Task: structure prediction
Amino acid sequence: MTPAELSSTVLHAVRRAVDAGELDVTVPARAVVAPPGPGGCGNYATNIALQLARPAGQPPYRVAEVLRSYLVGVDGVADVVLTGPGFLNISLGGAAPAALVEEILSAGTRYGHADAPDAPDAPDAPDAPDGSVVRLHCPHDLRAVVVADAVARVLRCQGALVRVTAEGFDREWTAALDVRVDGVGPAPASPPVTVRPVPAPADPLPLGRDAARWALLHPAAHDRPRIGDEHLAQREGNPLFRVRYAHARSRALTRNAADLGFAAAPGPVPDAPQDLLAALGDHPRVLAAAAAHRAPDRIARHLVAVADATLPFLPAVLPRGGEKPSAAHRARLALAEAAGTVLAGGLTLLGIDAPDHL
Result:
C-alpha cells in the first residue's frame, strides 16, 4: 500500500463512520499520513482524529477509536495502535507493496516530482506552482549561494518557477561547485525570500564539489556546518559515503543479477524491511516539505535514512549457494533498485553525483 493509497483508505474509514452515524463531520479532502513521530509505532501515523474532533464534538481519542474499528482488517493493514491524544499508528502487511516499487521504477529519478506520474499527494507544496516566480536572494556568501541553488532545484521539481539573485558571486564557485545565479546585485524590488544560512567556518572548496555541497547542505540552515576531511572518508561514519555506497551497491546487484540471468520484477517480498518501505513511500512528502520550507537539509537527512534502511537488506537480494533465481529474488531486486533510484534522485536534487561504481 502506497502512502497515497493509505491516505485514501483513511478517508474511506471516515466516510464509513459518517455513513454509519458514528461521526457527524464533513469528510475532508485528504488525510495526511507520515512516518510516526516520537512515541509512535508502525509504518505510518495520521492525526486525522485530532483534525475531526472539534467538528465531531467528541474527544480526539474517541474519534480515533471509531476510525480504528474501520481500519483494522482492511486489506494491507496489519494493525492500528492509538497513541497520545489520538494519533492512529498504522502497520502495513508484511509483503512489499509492489505498486510502490512499480511507481518508483516507472518515474525513475523523478519520483516525487510534482509532475511525476502517480506522485502521492503531499501535505506541503511550494507556494508558486501557478506560474508566478519564487525569488530567492542571498548575500555574497558561498554557503548561502549553494543553499539557494539547492532550494531552486527542489522548488523546480515541485513545479515552481524560480529566480536566484545574490549580492555577490565568484565565478570559481560555478566551476568548483556547479552553482549559478540568475542575477547579481541588490535584492529585487518584489519581496524576495532571503536565503541566509549560518556561514561555513572554513573554505569548503578543497573538498571538491560533492563533499563540499554535502557539507554545506546536510546541516540545517541555522546550524554551523563542519568543514573537514571527514566528508571524504570512505567509511560508515560518513553519511555521504553511506548514501552513495547504498546507491552503488544497488546498481551492482542489478549487474550481478544480469550475470546470473535474471532481472527485477516488482512483487511480494515477505521479509521486506518496513523501515525501508516507509522511507521510500515518504520520499514525495519529503521533497514537497523541503520545497515548502526552503530546506534541502531535509532531503539530505532523508537520504541517510533511506541508505541506512537499504544497506542491511541488500545481502539478501541475490541467490545464495546453489539457489536458482526465483520470483522472490526478482522482487527483492526490484525493491533494491527502487531504493537506489530514490537515492540517485535525491542526490541529483542536491547537486551531488550518484556514481554506479564506488
Summary: The longest helix spans residues 327-349.
